[in-house]
Amino acid sequence: MGSYALSANIREGKLQQIPNSIQMGRKEGMCSLNDSLLDLLAKDIIEPAEAYHKASAKEELLKRMTALPGCRAPSGKPWTEEELNQASEGPEFVADGDGNNSANISNRLPPPPAIRHGGIDELQSEAVVAR
Fold first, then answer.
1. pTM summary value
2. What would the 3-class secondary structure string for the chain be?
3. Which range is least confidently modeled, 4-13, 55-64, 66-75, 103-112?
4. If both were cysteines, with which of 8, 13, 49, 99 could 87 make a disulfide (CB 3.0 to 4.6 Å apart)?
5. What is the pLDDT of residues 33-81, one digit of tens each?
């Protein structure tokens, strides 16, 4: 999925216009990183601190997080930058290979779907190739 305007912005190096192209392409299914993070927050898949640290526009994300009913700091008030930074230092966060802090949420995510090619399980197709 893409649009001519977005492709042209990338080709011409007009990177500052890409967020506007994504906004304009919403009806075509485009969404920003912050939109996706807010969706994951609303579904309680990721923690607010992780969303904040991965956000492309942190201040915008903070403002939009206040609209989510279940997205509140332990005090019951909207999250602040300081509280999110403190939360990311908690025991539920671990350093990933790049030295970044990420939430250890693998126990809350569903397993990935099985990969199928032409109706044959990936494992079965490997066994046939090996013969």
1. 0.60
2. CCCHHHHHHHHCCCHHHHHHHHHHHHHHCCCCHHHHHHHHHHCCCCCHHHHHHHCCCHHHHHHHHCCCCCCCCCCCCCCCHHHHHHHCCCCCEEECCCCCEEECCCCCCCCCCCCEECCEEHHHHHHHHHC
3. 103-112
4. 49
5. 999 999 999 998 999 999 999 998 899 999 999 888 888 888 888 898 8
